[in-house]
């Protein structure tokens, strides 16, 4: 079994990423296997900002249904499907690792498929839909450190050939979208702060971003799309190197900045 040293955080932005050829982030994800990560993982664990629960929850299904958790978008988007196999064995392993690390209650959902925070990037990254997928929820009533520790608990999965990635948005305030395409200075400032903090290994600053980052509440009125990053950081480990692998913008305030964390050789 080949181990995996990389963990990723992907900004998935708008659901239109699934069909809009004009979005640079779409082409970035379509080049995934050629330019970013070529090995085929045994399974994938995705942490999406679109699944919020009170306690950590994994979907343990045999086949992943495609969830259309968006409204009033173009009809072709509702005809897309990503029928990847589920990964119930991985779901049980995730539950085992979390409970062993002090997360006392972890649930399994035996019906839920993949929300668009998972299937939209996955259909571009792995269009054959032939890799088993497990999804893990976030807990928005908790903080960044909680999710960082969740990631630390899941780090052994890398040695088991599992690709871990968080899916959210580096900035995510849907009330401030700019349809003229001009960039919001506050969003650019937060995005640059995040890059500098990650590339310099200031994980504690990112864990406490509401206290340390400029425009934190404006960039993330709710933490749902940011916490997948904390899980990815934790799974990578404190000794990981960080690389910005993509940056583009949508609607003036949505950052598609995405990161690769590479664990140091042991």
TrEMBL record:
Cofactor dependence: Zn(2+)
Keyword hit for Mitochondrion: no
Pathway: Pigment biosynthesis; betalain biosynthesis
Sections of the chain in a coiled coil: none
Family of the protein in this entry: Belongs to the DODA-type extradiol aromatic ring-opening dioxygenase family.
Domain of life from the UniProt record: Eukaryota
Enzyme Commission designation: 1.13.11.29
Keyword terms: Dioxygenase, Metal-binding, Oxidoreductase, Zinc
Single annotated GO MF: stizolobate synthase activity
Record SUPFAM superfamilies: LigB-like (SSF53213)
InterPro entries: Extradiol_dOase_DODA, Xdiol_dOase_suB
Protein name: stizolobate synthase
